[in-house]
Design goal:
The chain has one domain. The chain is 67% helix and 0% strand. It contains seven helices and no strands.
C-alpha cells in the first residue's frame, strides 16, 4: 500500500498555490467558473444558472445590496455576503442596481435572495478548491 499512489495523491501533488488561487478567484468571479475550468461542466452550468437567477430575483424583489459600513456590523456582514457572487455583484453595483425599496412588501425577501446567493457561491468556491486539491 505504501508504494501505490492514488489519483487524489497525484492531484494534491500537482495542485500548485498559483493554480489554487486561480481556481478560487475564477470561482468567485463567475459562479460555477472554477467547476467549468476543472472539467465539471454540468455542475458549472447548474451553479451559474441557479446562483445568477437567485441574484436577479433578489434584485427584482427590490432587495438591497449592502455597503461595507463597519459602523453597522450586521450591514458589513450582509455586504460581505452580497459580494460573494463576484461579477454579477460588480455589474449590479456599477449599474446602480440594488438600491432597495424598504417600503416594498418584498424587500426582505429580496435581501434574503441576494445574501444567500452570495453565501452559496462561497460554498461553491470551497467545493471547487476541494476538487482542485483532490479531496473530491
Amino acid at each position: 500500500m505504501a508504494g501505490k499512489t492514488t489519483t487524489a495523491d497525484s492531484a494534491r501533488a500537482s495542485a500548485e498555490p498559483g493554480t489554487l488561487t486561480l481556481v478560487c478567484v475564477l470561482g468567485w468571479a463567475i459562479p460555477g467558473g472554477a467547476h467549468f475550468w476543472l472539467g465539471r461542466r454540468q455542475k458549472s452550468a447548474v451553479f451559474f444558472v441557479v446562483l445568477t437567477l437567485m441574484f436577479a430575483i433578489g434584485l427584482l424583489l427590490q432587495g438591497r445590496l449592502f455597503s461595507f459600513d463597519f459602523s453597522e456590523p450586521l450591514g458589513a456582514l450582509a455586504a460581505f455576503a452580497d459580494a460573494g457572487l463576484g461579477a454579477p455583484w460588480i455589474v449590479a453595483r456599477v449599474l446602480g442596481a440594488g438600491a432597495g425599496e424598504v417600503r416594498a412588501t418584498t424587500f426582505e425577501y429580496g435581501n434574503t435572495f441576494l445574501i444567500v446567493a452570495g453565501l452559496l457561491n462561497y460554498l461553491v468556491v470551497l467545493d471547487a478548491y476541494d476538487i482542485a486539491v483532490g479531496r473530491k
